[in-house]
From TrEMBL:
Main location: cytoplasm
Native species: Rubellicoccus peritrichatus
Matches recorded under InterPro entries: HPr, HPr-like, HPr-like_sf, PTS_HPr_His_P_site, PTS_HPr_Ser_P_site
Sorted UniProt keywords: Cytoplasm, Phosphotransferase system
Entry protein name: HPr family phosphocarrier protein
Domain HPr residues, every copy: 15-103
GO cellular component labels: cytoplasm
Length: 103
């Protein structure tokens, strides 16, 4: 698994992972889950899984993400596979950094 966040060559399927910390006060409820899914679905060629406490769910499923019960401070491991996996994880990192536009 390539965890460096750098694709070996453009156009090749890569597998990358990134740990993101939930920074918004209310955690991953319906709205943040929908935002994650909306970003993820723009990358139809990338498979995305999310892990928390040894539970793994499809990162393109609102219900799956909500079932993780990821509150403030939770660490989620995102595993992406596909040619644009790095781009997807960068967008998700930005989304988490912006605290899902919540104050």
């Amino acid at each position: 698994m390539n965890t460096s966040g750098i694709a070996p060559e453009s156009g090749m399927d890569v597998e990358v992972s990134k740990i993101l910390t939930v920074q918004n006060k209310m955690g991953i409820h319906a709205r943040p889950a929908a935002m994650i899914v909306r970003v993820s679905n723009r990358y139809s060629d990338v498979e995305l899984w999310v892990e928390k406490d040894e539970e793994q769910v499809n990162g393109k499923s609102i219900m799956g993400l909500m079932m993780l019960a990821a509150g403030h401070g939770s660490e989620l491991k995102f595993l992406a596979t596909g040619a644009k996996a790095n781009d997807l994880l960068k967008e998700l990192d930005d989304l988490f950094s912006r605290k899902f536009e919540e104050t």
